[in-house]
Specification:
single chain, mainly alpha
């Protein structure tokens, strides 16, 4: 009787262990798939993350840190309310501790952008500066370009146009290096916007004219149309409204 009970207990325990291992493998695959899809399809990435049982599947610090980072990325990209600061603080401390510089820099980036969304401009810039120091040692031009683009945007919003221009020039060099036409178009639109704010109207016109052929090349029409409309709204109350209407008409 005792022998039978022992065998039953052992088989039950093995079944539980095997089930837990299967769940663990499944959550790991969901995380890695979400990470892979994040830039190209954040909707699908968020769907995968929502399938993870946070209580059962995130016992390991590594998975917890990655989940918090990816969830923040997906929420930011989909304009959802951001996760609590404590989650990204956990990810930041973990990636610093294990020396994963790519995810460490990525965590800093989204901490900075969440602070920006909350209109904490000084905090946002400082977080991005801290993260950029790490990112610049990586072979990841895409991530570095995002840093410079965002630091330009934050300074634009804060009215620091001279500083915004400095970051924009660095962003421009990376946009050319990675041959991203949307990034380059964004640089020209930002150049035009900043020079317009500085009342350097000839320079503003020059970059708006450089922008038109990039918008009309057929690549990423939806995104380019969206960002051009954004800049049309920026100048809608200014002397450049008519010129921006011409640009907008070029892609519609």
């Amino acid at each position: 009787m005792n022998s039978k009970f022992t065998k039953t207990f052992i088989f039950s325990l093995l079944a539980v262990i095997m089930f837990a291992c299967a769940d663990s493998r499944n959550s790991f695959k969901l995380l890695t798939d979400a990470d892979r899809l994040m830039e190209s399809n954040p909707d699908s990435a968020l769907t995968l993350l929502n399938r993870i049982d946070t209580a059962a599947d995130l016992r390991e610090d590594g998975r917890k840190a990655l989940y918090y980072l990816l969830l923040t990325q997906a929420q930011y990209k989909k304009y959802h309310p951001a996760t609590a600061d404590s989650m990204l603080n956990f990810s930041l401390e973990y990636y610093n501790r294990i020396g994963d510089d790519e995810k460490h820099a990525r965590t800093y980036y989204y901490m900075g952008m969440i602070a920006f969304e909350q209109k904490q401009y000084e905090k946002s810039i400082q977080l991005l500066k801290d993260g950029l120091k790490i990112a610049e040692d990586l072979d990841n031009d895409e991530l570095i370009s995002k840093y410079y683009e965002s630091m330009c945007e934050i300074n634009n919003v804060a009215g620091n146009y001279t500083q915004a221009l400095e970051y924009l020039k660095k962003f421009y060099s990376y946009s050319l290096r990675i041959e991203n036409v949307v990034y380059t178009a964004n640089v020209y639109a930002n150049m035009a916007y900043i020079y317009n704010k500085q009342e350097r109207h000839d320079s503003s016109d020059f970059y708006y004219k450089k922008l038109i052929p990039l918008l009309d090349n057929g690549k990423s029409k939806r995104r380019q149309g969206s960002f051009c409309n954004k800049y049309r709204m920026y100048v809608s109350a200014s002397w450049r409204f008519g010129f921006c209407e011409i640009i907008f008409d070029a892609i519609t």
